[in-house]
Amino acid sequence: MNINGLFAHSLTDLIRGIRQNKKNEQSYIAKEIADIRLELRRNDPDLKAQAIAKLTYLQMMGYDMSWASFHVVEVMSSPKFLYKGIGYLGAVQSFNQETDVLMLTTNLIKKDLASANASEIGIAINGLSHILTPDLARDLCADLVAMLNHSRPIVRKKVLLVLYKVFLKYPEGLRLSFSRMKDRLEDPDPSVVSAAVNVICELARRNPKNYLSLAPQLFKLLTTSSNNWMLIKIIKLFAALTPYEPRLTKKLLPPITTLIQTTPAMSLLYECIHTVIAGGMLATTGSGSNAESANMLAATCVTKLRTFLEDPDQNLKYIGLLALTKILPSHPHLVAEHKDIILKCIDDPDISIRMRTLDLIVGMANKKNLTEIVKRLISHLLPINENDVTTSSSLNNGAATAALMDPTYRADIIRRIIFICSQNSYANITNFEWYLAVLSDLTNIAGVNVGESLMQQFMDVGVRVKSARSYTVQLMMRLLADKKLTEPTRTEDSNSMVLLAAAWLTGEYCALLENPETALELLAQKSTAKLDPAIQATYLQTMLKIFAYWMNSLQYSWNEEARQSLVEMVDLLRDGIKDMFSRSPDLEVQERASNISVILDIIAEHVPRTPLKIANSISFAPTMPKPPAVLGSLYPLFFNQELNPVAPKAQKKVPVPEGLDLESWIHEPVPEQEPESSDDDDFLNERPSRWGEEAVSGKSKKKGKKGRDQEDTKESAEAKAKRKAERRERQKHDPYYIGGGGDSPKSQKKSQDDLDVDSIPIVQLSMDGFAKPIVATRHPCRVCGRGDA
Asked: What is the DSSP letter of 22?
């Protein structure tokens, strides 16, 4: 490189050289940075400006240029406009809040702000907005505020915008210059007014209440301006101000209504509707005229929002659904009038639009449209596999999209169907048989595991709605026979938990069964062994209930056919329980199976296995033998009680009988006694006299122990020895106590070491007490390997 800079590389040469040296880019850039360092040492301002321009480019590539910050300030102070722009650009790129040379820029920026050239002022303001620090904001705030009266509108506009950054760094400046900013709202230039409105709206986000005094001027702009973007800002600001000044609502209603009816701009229309909702202008409280005006405005807003849903733009469709969701709580009937276009949005390919539509549908469901909404949502779940989509010609693109949606979304649709049907204690359902059929359809077409939710609904409706109970039992029988539930091909999307509700309801209301024998056969089928243990346990309990009811009914028509059916059913249930449930790893299933097996064994002993003998009476009329007494004893004894629904707060409504004091003792509590003291149980002496009380203080503990010692001294040594002998004799024959000779811990440890484990008797427990020791098969101990267990 020529030392005078005649052949120095320009920025264009640097970029060209980087492109030509792709293989050794790092070394080439390192050489260029070394050359730039030499160029910055020269006193040539042209060379320095060119070097800073190249450094700025390299900084954008990730190379540090903070070492040249002083040279950047030198270029910023250049009298040439081109070099000044390069300097400010370098400062914007490389300076930060900790840059040391920023203190040197204060007078430089003041000088540029006072320039007669509007372009230099613009460069200074632009650079200041990026490198502003609290110190610069404090030192330059007064100069910038004074420039709000500049003769050039472009300067006033830029000063207003940079003042926002100044106020963030130096909040005290806002208090000093607020009146000057307020005057700019009446500036003759529209761009300056728009800038003032933007700054005020941004500042009002932190505390809108401080800007209530600007309401008259802002309202004037709202009614006179034709700048849509400025109107949007003003309307947003009014939406934030109305909660602090309720009188604004009535004042804003006419101009905003006019804008909603006349403006073609979708953005402005949405902001007007949002302000109407957020400002509470749709509230129907108050006089009749106010309520009528609010209803008319709400109808206008909903009608306008329909155009959003009909627009192909996805963004407009989403914000339209969002606004309708906010109007829904106050005017659900108006939103429900447009359910046709809302339901179409379920087929939209955008998942966010579909989710927002579901939120809207949940809120607008009522008795009139519930059936249609549920039918539409269910059709949205069909078909559940891709083959059905390609073979069905009647399905549109929306249904095809629904067929391939993820399981989380399918589960969400089903949960929403259940919610809109069951909300407010099933207030919207007029036909519970229809709802039960819907739940049954969801069981088959869900494609995801929602069995818990469906199970709870089946049981809730079955218990609550007595008029639909007969249909419920019939439907549960169909579910018990459904092989898709009892033998699922895929466990991850199986809804077999509904079988728990099916079994429980058929057992609880077995009197409504048309054929109890069929129900017992379904409960005892082999596929039951593959179900969840909770379902198996319910199956066993239901099996016993239905069998007891059916067996009880046989006593009224006892004949040979009934006897034969009973014997076959007992054998069927005994074999099924033995094969599938008796060896279940689940303890609950195993216990219930054991109980039922014992009951079936007892019944089998009392039911005759041989054919009944028909006796001839004196009148030669054949008479059947009396049925066994066991037929009518099981069901009335255990299961002849119908379960009725009880409200969660029903107990609170039961009045307390007169004369009953719930705070007094029914029986006086037994006084607690001091535990017996012994030499080998010294720890008892440290325990408080009352087991439930907290530890006492050291002083009281010491005093209590001293008192007990005095009582022990009064007791004779002979009585104490006699009591110990009796206790040892008692423990000697106790199979659960391994004792030893001696009272001291050392003697106890020694006796336990010499203890013969093999001499401990093995006893058999029974309800009558302990039996005599029996001889057990001798095997090595699994723990220690010694002796026999």
From this structure: S
Residue located via tokens 């004074």 = 146
* Ranges 38-52, 400-414, 680-694, 700-714, most confident: 38-52
Q: Give first-to-last CA distance, the chain, whole Å.
A: 100
CA 318 to each of CA 36, 40, 416, 466: distance values in angstroms, whole numbers, following the listed order: 54, 56, 20, 44
Is residue 630 within 8 Å of residue 603, measured between CB atoms? yes
Q: How far apart are CA 498 and CA 485, in angstroms?
A: 8
Whether the predicted pLDDT of 705 surpasses 70 = no
Residue 218: is its pLDDT beyond 70? Answer: yes
Q: How far is CA 110 from CA 49, 79, 95, 115, 306, in A?
A: 21, 14, 18, 9, 55
Q: Which long-range contacts (CB under 8 A, 24 or more apart) does 207-212 make?
A: 208/237, 208/240, 208/241, 208/244, 209/241, 209/244, 211/237, 211/241, 212/241, 212/244, 212/245
CA distance 739 to 751: 8
- DSSP code for 620: S
Which of 475, 555, 457, 556 has the alpha carbon at shortest distance from 514?
A: 475
Q: Shortest CA distance to 277 belongs to which of 304, 316, 314? A: 304
Residue 286 burial (C-beta neighbours within 10 Å; 0-12, 13-18, 19+): exposed
Euclidean distance between CA atoms 438 and 618, whole angstroms: 61
Tell me, what's the pLDDT at 623? 59
Phi, psi of 623, rounded to the nearest 5 degrees: -125, 135
216 touches 180 (CB < 8 A): no
d(Cα 159, Cα 118) in Å, to the nearest integer?
12
Nearest Cα to Cα of residue 238 among 266, 265, 263, 259: 259
Instruction: Report the distance separating Cα 185 and Cα 189, nearest Å.
Output: 10
Specify the long-range contacts of residues 391-400, CB closer than 8 Å, at least 24 apart: 396/347, 397/347, 398/344, 398/346, 398/347, 398/348, 399/347
Q: How far apart are CA 581 and CA 529, in angstroms?
A: 7
227 CB contacts (<8 Å, ≥6 apart)? 190, 194
> What is residue 578's three-state secondary structure?
helix
Beta-carbon contacts of 644 under 8 Å, excluding residues fewer than 6 positions away, are: none
259-315 confidence digits (pLDDT tens) = 999 999 999 999 999 888 887 788 754 555 667 777 888 899 999 999 999 999 999
CB 360 within 8 A of CB 342: yes
> What's the CA gap between 535 and 528, in Å, rounded?
9
Structure tokens at 253: 């209603």
Which residues does residue 615 pair with via DSSP β-bridges, in sequence order? 623
Q: In the block, which residue shows the tokens 């009188």?
A: 247
> E strand or H helix at 45, and its extent?
helix 45-60
Q: Any idea what the Cα angle at residue 153 is, between residues 151 and 157, rounded to 5°? A: 125
| CA-based torsion, 573, 574, 578, 579: positive or negative | negative
Q: What's the rounded Cα separation, in Å, for the pair 267 and 234?
A: 13
Angstrom CA distances, 355 to 290, 397, 577, 711, stand at: 35, 18, 48, 79
